[in-house]
Design goal:
The protein has a single domain (about 5-395), classed as Cytochrome p450. Helix content is about 45%, strand content about 10%. It has 15 helices and eleven strands. α6 packs across α15 (about 355-370). It is globular. The termini are far apart.
């Protein structure tokens, strides 16, 4: 459907709220979200939900991509997180539109290039081996700590987060990412604690710089002047929340799927070179980030649906990744799918900065786990989403 923009922001504040679909993309709603996508794409590819203050949902691949490239209409401000991560401050660079975004991308991109991420591979593999050594071996193991700790330790070391505080990090992430949909006050309290923590850490890095990202950001002479304290705080907050949670979900869901598909597991065990393609398919079909929000700056029409300036719009990346106009048999997980133009990391100016690292972390996590446990299955039912217990029975 072509997207047509009209009057500037403020021209109207009340939009047409039909067709409607009671869509949610958090918590228990994720249990049935793929069924919801199928219904929405068939019956109401653009629809209104009253949740979280009300928002439109866009589900087609073409419309999601068009909106991602049209930030004059679909702004990330005040935040693309809905509901918020416990703070009204912008998550830099996530919540910044071009042209202001350009400066922050130029500052951060050199830290996350493919070449730089390759230098982290040996340490990633070393940490994976250590975590697997620490698993309580037996017929049944809980793979969730492995999925959660591996990216947290790799990313934390790289950025300069003291891993002695990892237990507290987990509690904060749980409160900010998962508790916010039930009780916003829990997320806000945790966010306040995280900001206080990074104020102290930034002050420490100023006086005692190390070889980590935070120290480098503080010392570098960036175009347009150095980052100020508020910008540093907002960047650290985003790195903390995004870097310590989303990749953990991707590793967990990959193990969850393989534990139920022994033929695919056997293929990857016999030929680990197939794992990168499998990782891309897990990201497409079972991404831990199913949607992000925008705010309309202009009155906009998609097909027959009129949306108004000021209204919130959710770009359902998970639905776009299952669009039958783009992906053959989109509801099947095919670990050898090629090509695979998924949008799990977003596209355009707001594409995820950490995608190069996330891919490598998932690849290594699967390689090392499968090397250690070439055959395994689910020991008890578990949801596909989240970072909860994942009981896996190892097989001879």
């Amino acid at each position: 459907m072509p997207i047509q923009s009209g009057e500037p922001e403020g021209a109207s504040t009340v939009g047409t709220r039909h067709p409607s679909f009671d869509f949610d993309f958090h918590g228990a709603a994720l249990d049935t979200i793929f069924d919801d996508y199928e219904v929405m794409q068939r019956d109401c590819p653009v629809s209104w939900s009253d949740r979280y203050g009300g928002f439109w949902t866009i589900t087609s691949y073409a419309d999601v991509c068009a909106a991602e490239h049209d930030w004059d209409t679909f702004s990330v401000g005040p935040s693309m997180i809905l509901p918020s991560f416990g703070t009204d401050r912008p998550l830099i660079p996530l919540d910044i539109d071009p042209p202001a975004l350009t400066r922050f991308r130029q500052i951060l991109l050199p830290f996350f290039t493919p070449q730089r991420m390759d230098t982290l591979l040996p340490r990633t593999r070393e940490i994976a081996g250590q975590l697997l050594d620490d698993l309580a071996y037996g017929e049944v193991v809980d793979a969730s700590p492995y999925a959660r700790l591996l990216p947290a330790m790799v990313f934390g070391e790289y950025c300069g987060f003291p891993m002695a505080d990892a237990g507290q990090f987990d509690r904060w992430v749980d409160d900010i990412v998962f508790a916010r949909t039930d009780d916003e006050s829990i997320a806000r309290s945790a966010a306040d604690d995280v900001y206080d923590y990074f104020r102290s850490l930034i002050a420490l890095r100023r006086s005692e710089p190390g070889s980590d990202v935070i120290s480098a950001l503080l010392e570098a002479d960036h175009a347009g002047g150095p980052l100020d304290d508020d910008e540093m705080l907002d960047i650290c907050y985003l790195l903390f929340v995004a870097g310590l949670e989303t990749t953990a979900g991707a590793i967990r869901v990959a193990l969850w799927h393989l534990a139920q598909h022994p033929d695919e597991l056997a293929l990857l065990a016999a030929d680990p070179s197939l794992i990168p393609a499998a990782t891309e398919e897990f990201l497409r079909a079972l991404s831990p980030v199913q949607a992000m929000a925008r705010t309309l700056r202009l009155d906009t029409r998609i097909g027959d649906v009129q949306m108004r300036a000021g209204e919130r719009v959710v770009l359902a990346f998970g639905a776009a990744n299952r669009d039958p106009d783009v992906f053959e048999c989109p509801y099947d997980v095919r670990i050898d799918r090629s090509p695979n133009p998924h949008v799990a990391f977003g596209i355009g100016a707001h594409r995820c900065l950490g995608s190069n690292l996330a891919r490598r972390e998932v690849n290594v996590a699967l390689e090392e786990f499968i090397r250690r446990f070439p055959r395994f299955e689910l020991a008890e039912p578990a949801p596909w989403h989240g970072v909860g217990r994942l009981a896996i029975r190892t097989l001879p």
